[in-house]
Write a structure and sequence with these properties.
Oligomer: single chain
Strand content: under 5%
Number of strands: 0
Structural class: mainly alpha
Largest sheet: none
Length: 185
């Protein structure tokens, strides 16, 4: 790689990292291109040279953040055949994930309606959680009372549900026991 190309790649990476940190600290709606440039130690024009618009920088930020903070992998519970055990394993993985990544998810959920560039990434997250929920719901096909299983699983996987229980002072184990009770009620 030539020195110029290497320098450009390093500058691009600084911009992405600056965006990622600002999003986590102050949220996407409060992160301006000027703030990104200042944090990255570059001029605004440099940001625009690397990213033509806010959506492009958000996409790069999202990709970088998710590479550093990958969501739970459904393969980790795919082979579990017992429905409640599968549910508990999946939910425990998501609750541990939410514990580690709360700051970013909090500002993302708060800002999504006001930041168009954030709406597609958040829709992608919702689709991913929908797929997880569908898989967990399918594991309960033989359950006698299936009317409440789908809505319960979807609610339990939702970040704001975890946040509400967290704000009440419950540990992840206590949350898991509580939501399992909801499922089995």
């Amino acid at each position: 790689m030539s020195e110029r190309a290497k320098s450009q790649a390093e500058t691009r990476q600084k911009i992405v990292e600056a965006t990622m940190h600002l999003h986590e600290e102050i949220g996407p709606r409060n992160t301006s291109i000027s703030a990104i440039a200042e944090r990255a130690g570059v001029q605004r024009l440099t940001v625009y040279r690397h990213f033509p618009d806010e959506t492009a920088v958000f996409q790069a930020c999202t990709s970088q953040w998710l590479s550093l903070n990958p969501p739970p992998d459904p393969a980790d519970w795919a082979e579990i055949s017992e429905p409640v055990e599968k549910f508990r394993t999946a939910v425990a993985a998501f609750y541990d994930y939410y514990s580690r990544t709360r700051a970013m998810w909090t500002v993302s959920f708060r800002d999504v309606s006001e930041v168009p560039a954030l709406q597609q990434p958040m829709a992608d997250v919702a689709a991913f959680l929908g797929t997880i929920a569908d898989d967990l719901i399918a594991a309960f096909d033989d359950a006698a009372d299936t009317d409440h299983i789908g809505p319960t699983i979807r609610h339990v996987l939702h970040f704001p549900t975890w946040t509400d229980l967290e704000d009440q002072g419950l540990s992840n184990k206590q949350k898991l026991d509580l939501v399992t009770g909801w499922l089995q009620a």
